Amino acid sequence: MRKLRVLMLMHEGCVPPDSIEGVSDEEMAGWKTEYDVKVSLHTLGHDVIPLAVGDELNVIRTAIQRHKPHVAFNLMEDFYGITVFDQHVVAYLELLRQPYTGCNPRGMMLTRDKGLCKKVLSYHRIRVPQFAVFARGRAVKRPGRLAFPLFVKSTVADSSAGIAQASIVYDDEKLRKRVEFIHDQLGTNAIAEEYIEGRELYVGVVGNRRLQTFPVWEMLFEKLPDDVPHIATAKVKFDTRYQTRCGIRTQAAEDLPPGVEQRMYDLSRRAYRALVMSGYARMDFRLREDGRIYLLEANPNPHLAYGEDFAESAHVTGVKYTQLIQRILSLGIRYRSEALY
Fold first, then answer.
1. Per-residue model confidence as pLDDT tens digits over 109-163
2. What is the rounded CA–CA span in Å between residue 75 and residue 78?
3. CB-CB contact of 243 with 185 (8 Å)
4. CATH of domain 5-100
5. What CATH superfamily classification does 197-340 receive?
6. Cis peptide, bond prior to residue 149, ω within 30 of zero
7. Looking at the DSSP assignment, which residues form a beta bridge with residue 300?
8. Residues with Cβ < 8 Å from 95, sequence gap 6 or more?
9. Model confidence pLDDT, tens digit, residues 185-243
10. N vs C: which end of the chain shows fewer Cβ within 10 Å?
11. Cβ atoms within 10 A of the Cβ of 182, count?
């Protein structure tokens, strides 16, 4: 394996230290992914150039001209504080003819907008919840086809921003209030989708043309009362005390009905290709008791930290963390945007 010059693109404030000795888990939370990727790249023998990116793209151009990296390892999740602008960072890399890891800008555009994503998936006959998008500045009027309960969230925010138990609504007044909450607090359009009761399942996908799926992963809510919706709220994802109190954990899915596992792998690959994704992604599903599978979201560039669901599901197949990072790196070098057009 040849030694590569790798330009690591990350947010300001996320540049990790050289050592984590004496650093608590809470202190690491903001830059754990960056640290784990950086350590793995060094372990693999690559020359790593960390780059903090703020609200100016010219720092990327300058770094590319100075260091002439073989590949940019993209860990940007937004730009200028706007989630959907991360696609423009990747588009800029393409304009500079700079190979990069992760999803391409077209795939990001189609997946970051949850309404648009569901329209594309529906066209390809991939089952998604019934939904409606409520734009800012317009009256909240529920279409007759959309039945309660509904799950209300931002059309573009990620990491469960704005998602709480109050996101599940049961009447038009609560729908109006929650949509207005999203409009006012997050400054984005809102989407209300049919709430699917069932098991929360994830499938990791890696590849450009030839795709590999990782074992189905499940989020368990072992101590959460039955009358409380089992959804991945911000507290469920990030509040460690709440996770312990409510028995929130993830693991390889067990006791899936016959044929469900293979159907989920097939759906994941179909969705990945329909949404023109590349690099790596995570598909979020709900499995109802009657066996129906709903694709909730397609997530490009999911969290890569060691111990996170994506890396853990890869590990079950025998892909160690450093091997996963190397594979993502190799896919980035081999990817050619011209193949899309």
1. 999 999 999 999 999 999 999 999 999 999 999 999 999 999 999 999 987 888 9
2. 9
3. no
4. 3.40.50
5. ATP-grasp fold, B domain (3.30.470.20)
6. yes
7. 281
8. none
9. 999 999 999 999 999 999 999 999 999 999 999 999 998 888 889 998 888 888 888 88
10. C
11. 25
What is the rounded radius of gyration, in angstroms, for the C-alpha atoms of the chain?
20
Query: Which value, to the nearest 10 degrees, does the dihedral of the CA atoms of residues 267, 164, 84, 73 take?
Result: -70
Of 183, 197, 126, nearest to 155 by C-alpha is 183
Query: Which CATH architecture fits 130-194?
Result: 2-Layer Sandwich (3.30)
- Please choose, from the candidates 60, 114, 115, the residue with its C-alpha nearest in 3D space to the C-alpha of residue 88: 60
Residue 201: what residue type? Answer: L
Q: Locate 14 and state its tokens.
A: 């996320």
This model's pTM is above 0.90: yes
Give me the amino acid identity at 14. C
* Per-residue confidence (pLDDT) for residue 295, from 0 to 100: 98
What ranges do the domains of the chain cover? 5-100, 130-194, 197-340
Residue with tokens 């690559």: 46
Contact 71, 332 (CB under 8 A): yes
Q: Residue 339: what pLDDT?
A: 54
Question: DSSP assignment of 93-129, as one string?
Answer: HHHTT--BSS--HHHHHHHHSHHHHHHHHHHTT----
